[in-house]
Amino acid sequence: LMLKLKAITKKYVAGDTSVMALKGVDIEFRKCEFVSILGQSGCGKTTLLNIIGGLDQYTDGDMSIGGTSTKNYKDRDWDNYRNHSVGFVFQSYNLIPHQSVLSNVELALTLAGISKEERRKRAIAALEKVGLGDQLKKRPSQMSGGQMQRVLLARALCSATKMLLLDEPTNYLDEEHIAWLKRYLQEYENAFILISHDIPFLNSVINLIYHMDNAQLNRYVGDYDKFQEVYAMKKAQLEAAYNKQQKEIADLKDFVARNKARVATRNMAMSRQKKLDKMDIIELAAEKPKPEFR
Hints:
Helix content is 43%, strand content 22%.
């Protein structure tokens, strides 16, 4: 087991206002699990990715890395985790504008304590893999959005040893480089966690889905098409159970209303009222079906 989140809660507080971004999230990641996190915009996917990557701290619960709790992690422990265990490809570029492309990729290896000669070798190899071998001296301001996205990929690929975290990695990539990334992830020997709206890309690389809804996660084995099938079935089952219970509630309330004042039927009415009071009410979520993809 590489990573385990137990009852993770994340609350953001601003003055008198608080927002619950994550609520009691339980999730485990193992080697060779290729995971996608799905859900509507603003549902907490990126917050979860930031917590997994050590970029943000959870409010309650625990995250264990290789069986070790992070509750008592110091800053140096988080630095070590970020530098040696995870590689990031996020939507914001986070590149140093006055540094060359090569220096930006080398920086991640510098923080990880890699020697100058080795980090130069690995950084050049990573940039060549993403088709930027002839752009080493350029600065981010001289590059297109797609090229900067590939720099992020190179930086993540040459530094990550255990897990990749990718937030919309195909944005700005052309078909050739999407195909390259697809092949790379299909052959990746560890685990990765992916957020993407690119359905064909998702279906080609993932084997496990966590669907985020109402700040909680549900697990689905398989690709996006399988998720759609199972999600629709579960939703139909929940709606059927909800409708059945609503009819039962209406019948019980009607019986109580008609019979509670009559001496002969008062006890039966009280019995049905107790049943109503003890009933676990099934609730339908706000209209949030499967995530909408463009």
